[in-house]
Each structure stands twice: as C-alpha cells, then as structure tokens.
Amino acid sequence: MIELEEYLLVLKQDGEGCDYTIGCGYTHKKILLPSNNEELKLQKLKEATVEYYGSDSQICDAYLIPMSNVIALPIGDWYWEQEVAAQKTKEERTKKEELRQLEILKKKYENG
C-alpha cells in the first residue's frame, strides 16, 4: 500500500519583474506524494513542476515543503485584536475631544 504525505510545492519564476504584490513571481500548490516510494515521488514532482514549462515565465527554483509540521496561525484573532485596539483608540480620541468641548462650553456658560 502506498502511503501519501501532503506537501506544499513552491515554484519561483525566473527574473525579478514584479508589480510589488504579495507573492509576485511565485506560485504554489498542495500535492500528495508517496512517502515510501522515492522513484514515484520524484516522478510526481516532475509532473507537477514541468506543467509550468513554457508558460509566460520560466521556473528557476522549486521548493518542496512538508506539511507535517505546519502551524496554523490565528490570523483572524490577530485581525480582530487589531480592530478592537483601533476602535478603542478612536473612542478615546472622541471622548477626549468631547471633554475638551465640554470644558469650553462650561467656561462659556458658567461665567455668562
């Protein structure tokens, strides 16, 4: 029986032409490869990589990353924390401005 392992295949295009976007010049895909048959693994890697041959940009580097030790980062939580902090800062600024205006009005109408 062939056991499969999940990998991330990362391909980098030749050259440095870029429009400054995240991952410009890179493509990636998850692939399942046999863990106990190196010849078949190599064959599958070649198939997955050469499908990009002849595309607009030639591939100059390829990286195979095992997914067995992947740590999922809590991006949603981090964004939520950032949003909460930004909202708190906004509320503090608003309160400070309202208190400043209140002091101005107090001075204006207490002495009048």
Layout of secondary structure:
Elements: E1 4-13, E2 26-34, H1 38-50, E3 59-66, H2 75-110
Please describe what this structure looks like.
By secondary structure, the chain is an alpha+beta fold. The chain has two domains: 4-69; 73-112. It has two helices and three strands, in the order ββαβα. The longest helix has 36 residues, at 75-110. The mean pLDDT is 86.
Content-based structural category? alpha+beta
Whole-number total of structural domains = 2
Number of strands: 3
Helix % is: 40-55%
Distance between the termini: 93 Å
Radius of gyration: 28 Å
Please give the count of helices: 2
Contiguous uncertain segments of 5+ residues = none
Mean pLDDT: 86
Instruction: Characterize the overall form.
Output: elongated
Q: Strand-and-helix sequence, N→C?
A: EEHEH
Largest sheet: 3 strands, antiparallel
Structure at a glance:
With 112 residues, this protein is α+β, with helices and mostly antiparallel strands. It has helices spanning 38-50, 75-110; strands at residues 4-13, 26-34, 59-66.
Main traits of this protein?
single chain; 44% helix; 112 residues; elongated; three-stranded antiparallel sheet; alpha+beta
